[in-house]
Predict the 3D structure of the following.
Amino acid sequence: MNTPSLTIADVQVGQELPALDIPLTRTLITATAIASRDYQEVHHDPSIAVERGSQDIIMNILSTNGFVGRYITDWAGPNAFIRSVKVRLGVPNYPGETMKMRGKITAVDAKTVTVLVTGSNSMGDHVTATVEVVLP
């Protein structure tokens, strides 16, 4: 999905962003939790996660936020600036799932684009985010 930097002239309300599917492996979920210094056992120890009511280890919110940011910057390019991200979590991301990232432009003004981003898996929406991006 790497594209050259977009400009405000390249976008319009209703435009859909290219899809990005992210396979969720046990390694990915564990590594991204550790990279964000989240050492909670539910992100890397399946037996403790199950003991605490989960079906397996779960992706942490910082990893989810990182994937939302990656989705936007892969689309918008290196000259874009993310002004704000508002995230709402839904169903968990478990190993063996695929998070399907999708986006749609909901507003455009002088230099700012608002994108509604969803990341879903087989159980429903894992994340819904509203992202404001400044384009050159």
